[in-house]
Amino acid sequence: MNIIIHRGTHQIGGCATEYRTKNTRIFIDFGAELDSKNARPFDIEGITKGKTNCDAVFFTHYHGDHMGLLDTINKDIPLYMGVASKEIAQILNKRLSKSPHVKSYNVDRIDSILTFEVLKPIMIGDIKITPYMVDHSAYDAYMFKIEADGKVVLHTGDFRTHGFRGKGVKPTLEKNVGKVDVLVCEGTTLSRTEARCETEYELKNRIKPILEENKYVFVVCSSTNIDRLAGICSVIPIGKYCICDNYQLSVMEYVRKHAGHKSSLYRFSKAKYYRENLDEKMNGSGFCMFVRCGNPEHKKVMEMYKDKNPVVIYSMWKGYLEQDNIKRFLDGYKRLDMHTSGHADSDAIKMVTDITQPETVIPMHTEVPEAFEKLVGKDKLMILKDGEIYNLGV
Ligand SMILES: [Zn+2]
Ligand SMILES: [Zn+2]
């Protein structure tokens, strides 16, 4: 089996990894680069051009840096994704497709995506792929075990262990994965110094008193960061409104339908969509409203409360604060930055390597692959270049 990381050996995002045997060729993810202004499309024979020579593309989750180049994949290549991941991608996509200024996917192409189930292996030619659900800032994200030519690889995709579902990662790996030959592991957070990330649980408990002490709170949060939305909803005081827009509510309603019966966290029972006849009640009782930077409707509501000391909780990656449209949107408001990463910290990476005991660790989704050395040792570390062929042998 060969592994080729087409992009992602020295950068965060833009992920695409090829696994191939003599007879079969699959890809894991086909993502866009995070710097959208300078993002480069892929130009790969048999995938994006020429006669198709690829048996399937599997997406770990719906983030754009993993599926953003979906529309450039030859139309006759089957695509696979988790059930909820596909649905949420489509709900988001349908909203984006209404805006002429934003890039969206072909709706039919998303509809055509095939779905897989947790722990149920899929055979594509002579490659066996088994999906394992993991904790991440995207709902319904997966690691894949890839088996072919007598070798076993674990491809982590984006994951973490400090979210609400983080505790499940270790037993999943112990019970179902065990020892592997090669670990292809994300290392997003390794460019930072702290070894341990704040948990979603701790973050939610830090947000709770802010919602209790401030009558009017706006929360800037990704509309598909389900666990963050759920955590914040769970600490909105009784008597205060939980407000979002119609689109955001449709995402929450989908998650409620999908998982509300399994966990009260995903019921979003208080959530209401904003409409003007709620103004008086919201003003009287107070509220927590989810908003998105750049949305003029959301800005209008924020402006209505500008003189009433509202608090804006910024609950996204702080790097986005450099962007002019976000700066403008938040200008003049009392802002509290309250966020935790969607990615594995050093402890989580160590835990995965301890359980899977790989002979070789290949870093990806990181700007500092060399930082893996202190976690896995020099002997196991294999830093590849984008496009380099790594041969596992037979
Ligand atoms: Zn990613
Ligand atoms: Zn992600």
In short, what is this structure?
The protein has 394 residues and is an alpha/beta fold. Helices cover 27% and strands 22% of the residues. The chain has helices spanning 64-67, 83-96, 107-111, 169-177, 200-213, 226-233, 246-259, 279-285, 296-304, 324-330, 346-356, 373-376, and strands spanning 2-7, 16-20, 25-28, 56-58, 79-82, 114-116, 122-124, 127-134, 141-148, 151-155, 182-186, 216-220, 241-244, 271-273, 287-291, 311-314, 334-337, 360-364, 389-391.
Structure, described:
This protein has 394 residues and is of the alpha/beta class. It is 27% helix and 22% strand. The protein folds into two domains: 2-193 and 342-391, Ribonuclease Z/Hydroxyacylglutathione hydrolase-like (Metallo-beta-lactamase, Chain A); 200-337, Rossmann fold (3-Layer(aba) Sandwich), CATH 3.40.50. Strands 6-5-4-3-2-1-19 form a seven-stranded mixed β-sheet. A six-stranded mixed β-sheet has the order 7-8-9-10-11-18. Helix 2 runs antiparallel to helix 7 (246-259) and helix 4 (169-177) packs parallel to helix 11. The structure holds zinc ion (ZN) (2 copies). The site of one zinc ion has 6 residues, from loops.
